[in-house]
Amino acid sequence: MNNKKNAARAERRQQKIDAGLVAAIFPEVSSIVINMTYNQRGIKQSMPRIVNFFPSSYAFFTVECLNKECVEGGFDFTRIISGMVGNRKATSKGELGCEGGPIADHSDVVYEVAIQYS
């Protein structure tokens, strides 16, 4: 099991490197903030999360699912952020479901993305 976890971590690290830096991909962006409220099936209390990206951050916008049993899941904000930057939009709100398993719809986030431009 440890080898599987280590391989998954190494793959995720490589995906981050392959994504490049925010400064290179979106040179006009000075910061990206994702405010989320994480909801998990079977847990009554929601959990707030904030994820910050700066020009020196990797432009890898997938936030991991917090469910211990989730396999290869997470919340992919790539299209949302790319679309916002393309339209020079400052904020976006919505909801995303986790893309992993083993159970469909095991968790979701209500989010607000805020982008500051240079």
What do these coordinates show?
The chain is of the alpha+beta class. It has one domain. 26% of the residues lie in helices and 35% in strands. The chain has three helices and six strands; from the N terminus they run ααββββαββ. Strand 1 and strand 2 form a beta hairpin. The longest helix has 18 residues. It is globular, with a radius of gyration of 15 Å. The termini are far apart. The model has no long low-confidence stretch (mean pLDDT 89).
Task: Describe the structure concisely.
The chain is an alpha+beta fold. It contains three helices and six strands; from the N terminus they run H-H-E-E-E-E-H-E-E.
Helix content: 25-40%
- Widest beta sheet: strand line-up: 2-1-6-5
Low-pLDDT segments: none
The fraction of residues in strands falls at: 25-35%
What is the rounded distance between the termini? 45 Å
**Looking at the structure, what is the overall shape?**
globular
* Overall pLDDT level: 89
Category from helices, strands and their pairing: alpha+beta
Any idea what the radius of gyration is? 15 Å
